[in-house]
């Protein structure tokens, strides 16, 4: 509990003691002057101001700023009216229990923010650099790419980079939600926000702080609250019109009936009761709190949701589309077969390695690894990458093509058919076919479980899109039990396929796309929900996505579906409960069948129950139902 909450609790307890004492004296009937003006008025006014001065001040301040119709205004007018008709104890009770509700609300918000606050604490305060044999601490913003920084045991990694010296275990729990540390040694990439374990590391910075992993995560977290769900927007609009309407209704209730029937005091009291009941706290607090709790629950398991609108969309998802390489498969390619034609095996691998020399694609890396020698790029000129096809380059004065069957067909080069389920790379030199290299990729750990879990939580269709060959794609689809697969696609083709799938979606149902590469960014943007890999994914993919898996574990998508559906269920429960109780007690209050105590329950009691219910969104159980 914060210091502010402790002070509020003390005010509530102290006021409650004073209130209980006044009520005890009042009920004995021995002190008749307690109900007479101004004695009772003054004695009840003291604890009233003690507990409610901040509400009155907020109401006055908001009125000065033109923001009249809010819960502070309703509480002030209702309690002033109660004092005006001599209902001192009711006026004090309304303000006291309203503040009890506010305390519950503040505590609930603090709890729901806790996991988000932990995420915000990943921001590093300094970076160590060595100057003249001494370590000095500098602001991470001031460190340029290429600088060597020293990260001591127990320190938080301030910037993304490559380990150039040392070995240690890295605690990634703050980013991924996974408690198992990861080993980092020379040549390994480390990302900011993680905590260095037992060893000292020297790291060469690869990105400025504003482009680092930790900076992007903090930006996502800070902006998450700005993107409201449809339900939240509805409640915001509802409260904007609801509060003035009930205020005007209360004023009419206080004036029109007594003009016709008399009894001003009774009707003013009914109007005050009407105002207390109508306060929309339960809705305007519990609905955003529920979504905030859902986002917090997702962050605990290492998934960042960029806004409550995306959490709501995940709950409505019925189709999920996966990219293949790096998403469902490891992206750790290995050359499994080399078939040379008109040249030696080594010469074929050399041509392919030189042709792929400027590419960072995993397939390029596997070819270079199979070649096993340093790639002399001075032998390569005029290298051109043709998206979705391959490479065209001049190698030692000869035109070399390295790519898929489409590339060969476009250049009218005949290639033999191949039945391998792996990725096939064809090589041609000076217009003549030179050979085939087969590269295989393994299914990613957890991919089978991810697809199975998605179907268990009610996602009806699991689709895979890939630029790989049809045979390789079909093999992966069969292993994972996918419903649909589309292969040999260019990046633009993937967008077209997603648009085609979107056109078939039923009204109110959503489609998600999961990808990790820079070429996935257009598809991530086009889908209803874009889900990107945060650990190995490209910056463009993470920027375009709506949901980010910080440890690339696709199994967590089903968990987020469960969290989102639970959150939406809780929000809808609160809306129905709050509106139902308020409507009932409003009618009773207007007809004089509800007193101020029942009005307090309809406001504060309903708010507390709704807030406690909203806090359940913070709790996630892997075995919880998703429906």
Description:
This protein is an alpha+beta fold and 627 residues long. The chain is built from 20 helices and 22 strands. The strands form 4 sheets. It has a 7-stranded mixed sheet, sandwiched between helices. A 6-stranded antiparallel sheet has the order 2-1-3-9-4-7, with no helix packed on it. Helix 15 links the parallel strand 18 and strand 19. It starts with a helix and ends in a 12-residue tail after the last helix.
Poorly predicted runs are none
Helix content: 40-55%
What is the alpha-carbon Rg in Å? 33 Å
Q: Report on the biggest sheet.
A: 7 strands, mixed
Shape: elongated
Average pLDDT over all residues: 80
Q: Going across the major beta sheet, what is the strand order?
A: 10-22-21-20-11-18-19
The helix count comes to 20
Strand content range: 15-25%
Structural class: alpha+beta
Secondary structure tally: strands = 22
- Report, as a whole number of angstroms, the end-to-end distance: 34 Å
Quick summary:
α2 (39-64) crosses α4 (88-120).
What are the main properties of this structure?
alpha+beta; seven-stranded mixed β-sheet
List the helices and strands and how they pair.
Blueprint: H1 3-28, H2 39-64, H3 71-84, H4 88-120, E1 127-131, E2 134-138, E3 148-151, E4 161-165, E5 168-171, H5 173-176, E6 182-184, E7 189-190, E8 195-196, E9 201-205, H6 213-223, H7 230-261, H8 264-278, H9 281-300, E10 303-305, H10 308-315, E11 317-323, E12 334-340, H11 345-355, H12 362-371, E13 380-386, E14 390-395, E15 398-403, H13 405-410, E16 423-429, E17 432-440, H14 447-456, E18 461-465, H15 470-480, E19 484-486, H16 491-503, E20 510-515, H17 521-526, E21 529-533, H18 539-544, E22 547-549, H19 556-590, H20 596-615
Parallel strand pairs: 11-18, 11-20, 18-19, 20-21, 21-22
Antiparallel strand pairs: 1-2, 1-3, 3-9, 4-7, 4-9, 5-6, 5-8, 10-22, 12-17, 13-14, 14-15, 15-16, 16-17
Helix pairs in contact: 1-2, 1-4, 2-3, 2-4, 3-4, 3-8, 4-9, 4-20, 7-8, 7-9, 8-19, 8-20, 9-19, 9-20, 10-19, 11-12, 19-20
């Amino acid at each position: 509990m914060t210091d502010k909450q402790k002070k509020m609790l003390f005010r509530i307890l102290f006021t409650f003691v004073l209130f209980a004492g006044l009520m005890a004296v009042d009920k004995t009937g021995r002190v008749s002057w307690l109900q007479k003006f101004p004695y009772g008025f003054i004695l009840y006014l003291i604890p009233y101001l003690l507990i409610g001065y901040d509400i009155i001040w907020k109401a006055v301040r908001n009125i000065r700023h033109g923001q009249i119709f809010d819960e502070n205004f309703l509480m002030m007018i209702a309690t002033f009216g109660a004092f005006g008709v001599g209902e001192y104890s009711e006026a004090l009770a309304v303000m006291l229990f309203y503040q009890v509700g506010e305390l519950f609300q503040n505590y609930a918000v603090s709890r729901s923010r806790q996991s988000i606050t932990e995420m915000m604490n990943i921001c590093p305060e300094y970076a160590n650099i060595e100057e003249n044999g001494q370590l000095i601490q500098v602001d991470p913003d001031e460190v340029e790419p290429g600088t060597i920084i020293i990260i001591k045991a127990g320190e938080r990694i301030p910037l993304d980079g490559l380990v150039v010296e040392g070995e240690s275990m890295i605690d990634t729990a703050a980013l991924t939600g996974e408690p198992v540390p990861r080993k980092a040694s020379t040549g390994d990439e480390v990302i900011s926000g993680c905590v260095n374990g037992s060893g000292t590391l020297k790291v060469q910075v690869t990105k400025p702080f504003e482009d680092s992993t930790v900076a992007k995560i903090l930006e996502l977290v800070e902006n998450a609250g700005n993107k409201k769900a449809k339900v939240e927007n509805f409640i915001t609009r509802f409260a904007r019109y609801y509060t003035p309407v009930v205020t005007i209704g209360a004023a009419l209730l206080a004036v029109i009936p007594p003009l016709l029937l008399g009894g001003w005091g009774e009707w003013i009291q009914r109007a005050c009761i009407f105002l207390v009941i109508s306060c929309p706290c339960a809705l305007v607090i519990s609905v955003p709190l529920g979504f905030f709790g859902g986002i917090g629950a997702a962050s605990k398991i290492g998934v960042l949701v960029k806004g409550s609108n995306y959490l709501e969309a995940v709950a409505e998802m019925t189709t999920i589309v996966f990219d293949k390489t790096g998403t469902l498969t490891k992206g750790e390619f290995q050359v499994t077969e080399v078939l040379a034609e008109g040249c030696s095996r080594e010469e074929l691998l050399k041509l392919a390695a030189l042709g792929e020399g400027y590419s960072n694609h995993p397939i390029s890396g596997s070819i270079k690894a199979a070649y096993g020698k340093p790639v002399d790029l001075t032998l390569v000129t005029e290298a051109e990458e043709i998206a979705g096809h391959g490479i065209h380059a001049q190698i030692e004065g000869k035109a070399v093509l390295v790519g898929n069957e489409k590339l060969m067909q476009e250049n009218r080069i005949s290639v033999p058919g191949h039945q391998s389920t792996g990725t096939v790379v064809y090589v041609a030199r000076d217009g003549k076919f030179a050979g085939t290299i087969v590269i295989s990729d393994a299914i990613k750990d957890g991919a089978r479980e991810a697809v199975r879990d998605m179907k268990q939580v009610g996602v009806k269709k699991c689709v895979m899109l890939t630029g790989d060959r049809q045979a390789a794609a079909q093999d992966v689809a069969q292993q994972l039990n996918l419903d649909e697969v589309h292969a040999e696609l260019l990046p633009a083709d993937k967008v077209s396929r997603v648009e085609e799938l979107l056109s078939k979606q039923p009204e109110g149902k959503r489609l998600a796309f999961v990808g990790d590469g820079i070429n996935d960014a257009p598809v991530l943007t086009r889908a209803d929900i874009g889900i990107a890999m945060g650990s190995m994914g490209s910056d463009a993919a993470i920027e375009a996505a709506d949901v980010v898996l910080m440890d690339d574990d696709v199994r967590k998508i089903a968990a987020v579906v469960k969290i989102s559906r639970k959150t939406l269920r809780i929000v809808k429960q609160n809306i129905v409960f709050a509106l139902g109780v308020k409507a009932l007690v409003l009618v009773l209050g207007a007809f004089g069948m509800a007193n101020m105590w029942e009005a307090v329950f309809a406001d504060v009691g309903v708010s507390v129950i709704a807030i406690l219910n909203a806090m359940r969104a913070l709790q996630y159980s892997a075995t919880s139902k998703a429906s």
